[in-house]
Amino acid sequence: MTVTLADVAARARVSPATVSRVLNGNYPVAASTRERVLRAVDELDYVLNGPASALAAATSDLVGVLVNDIADPFFGIMASAAQSAIGESATGRGGGEKLAVVCNTGGSPERELTYLTLLQRQRAAAVILMGGALEDPEHLAATAGKLTKLSEAGTRVVLCGRPPVPGDASAAALVFDNRSGARQLTEHLLGLGHRRIGYVAGPTDRTTTRHRLEGHREALAAAGVAEGPTVHGPYDRSSGHEATAELLARDPHLTAVVAANDTVALGVCAALRERGLSVPGDVSVAGFDDLPFSTDAVPSLTTVRLPLHEAGVRAGRLAMSTTEPPADGVETVPGELVVRGSTAAPRG
Amino acid sequence: MTVTLADVAARARVSPATVSRVLNGNYPVAASTRERVLRAVDELDYVLNGPASALAAATSDLVGVLVNDIADPFFGIMASAAQSAIGESATGRGGGEKLAVVCNTGGSPERELTYLTLLQRQRAAAVILMGGALEDPEHLAATAGKLTKLSEAGTRVVLCGRPPVPGDASAAALVFDNRSGARQLTEHLLGLGHRRIGYVAGPTDRTTTRHRLEGHREALAAAGVAEGPTVHGPYDRSSGHEATAELLARDPHLTAVVAANDTVALGVCAALRERGLSVPGDVSVAGFDDLPFSTDAVPSLTTVRLPLHEAGVRAGRLAMSTTEPPADGVETVPGELVVRGSTAAPRG
DNA sequence: CCCTCGATAGAAAGCGCTTTCTTTCCTGAG
DNA sequence: CTCAGGAAAGAAAGCGCTTTCTATCGAGGG
């Protein structure tokens, strides 16, 4: 029924071993033989049996990219970049083609663990975890354990946008400087003269949420300004939309709102507009990430640009590099304040 | 080093066969034995070797979801929906956990084929192709061939948002009614009184692009209105941005622009605004897809809503169903015109 | 009280590939 | 002309699991 290595070998009149060697290109094979084999492969339309090959070689060409929300361009951009970086590095064995696949955890710790196990099952060549982690000790420990197991089994582990695992130096980590970015953003608002600033934070117990919030508070504290109302919610537009009502209820005199990210900021703008408040005339709004649509928003969004594409590429490269992770392997990716039309000095 | 089935068997004092049966749950095993085995699995922290299992069983628990652009929420939403539908259907063997992974083709036919081969290698349980296809005969044939091979090898094939393969009835297909949606949209514009309508189309030689364009032309023809300028480009904001200049150069008196999708429409709006033209005061703009951000755009976007989430879920279910595809297996997903603020009657 | 049948568990044969260990064959040095 | 040495190809032993085919053990029925 299906064509196997042996069939190809028979047709090319060589041994299965030779065919394998031609396909993997890691052993000298005479040019004439190679050509004969390749022709047979072509004629029979042979496709390597991945599982068999992975079993025998004790490693597969699968690379898993775990993201919190695949529908969010924040992850889409990074994943896409990582995927192309991985695809390009055709260095490995078996023609080097790695199959980079992205897995959507939906932010659920259970699914994250499930995917990690599944990837472990497949003997994945590498795993990239993208996005903030849940700060629950129990889950943190479970994840750390899994990651250690994976490293031990030879799977490369890369963290992108989440802090390194304390006990484990085997994973390379790429962290965004959320704290400093958030601080700059709030400093910008303070510099404009804002003193009543609301904050729409991301989901509770997430590293990203906490770091951004801490940066915001640092700036406030440094300026001796009291913290305004804060509301938590998911990273989507409706979260920003709903939070705005709450924020305004808690302090009707807010002059600025900082959002967890650009998507949320858009929801905030919409809610403000619905209440007849103009941005930035009545209330200034700022986001985070600088997603592509932020430029086109009306008004265009003041935000902190994160080099998502570069970070993705970097993560992909780290996942591919066979070398050990750089000493202690934590690399910080800076954010850059981008001032646009959605922030201005408060009225009066 | 790594724990194998045999180790578990030894510890539970049963044969490897029994352990396998407990794990797969498809054969009667006495409760006491089962418990003993499960305990051993737990104590040894055993993880099934996927490749070995796939090799022996001649099938894996991998489901591939191919998308044209993972950074585009259009695909993100569908992929996310499909993935959860697949995750929920824990019906299969081996605990039923399927590993749904998304592969980013970037719209490149070569990468599409590469991923298909890679998935074929892995003996994927199912493959879902999302998004329009390239209309190149050669590539079409190559893809069709691959898909046939996959079906023959027992891989379920589902097409979502792309027309069924002519010769092959083994694949289930879900198609969006792009033509009719586009027709309604243009009819809406015509109804408002527009007669000079520009069109920013998607990439050439893509089914989605062609169908939407055809719907647009049908409406125009039915109303006896001459076709306005048309520009092709990718499905991103800059495409809309750049195309607008071209459109306006070809007809400075345009009163409306229809964009390939919402993202492109946003770029069009931005470009118009930069030239001092108001939307919809001077020029009406319409999009397609109704992505989440379209409601919040300023002005909010008139568009054609596609039930992306539902379609994704449907595709996921089809991929999981072990039953043969429904007779002829083509299911049409309708689009719904959503009129919002970006379209209005042309000026005087 | 023997035998048959149903319910469990074990034995063992692969699944298709990689890779070590050999063998073969040819080239060039002595 | 012989022999060492190296390049290229083959033989064969698994990799870890699934799954037929058997074997075993009780429990009823005759």
UniProtKB/TrEMBL annotation, chains A, B:
It holds the Pfam family LacI. It comes from the Bacteria. Keywords: DNA-binding, Transcription, Transcription regulation. GO terms for molecular function: DNA-binding transcription factor activity; transcription cis-regulatory region binding. Gene3D superfamilies: 3.40.50.2300, lambda repressor-like DNA-binding domains. SMART domains: HTH_LACI (SM00354). Residues 3-57 form the HTH lacI-type domain. This is LacI family transcriptional regulator. It comes from Streptomyces nymphaeiformis.
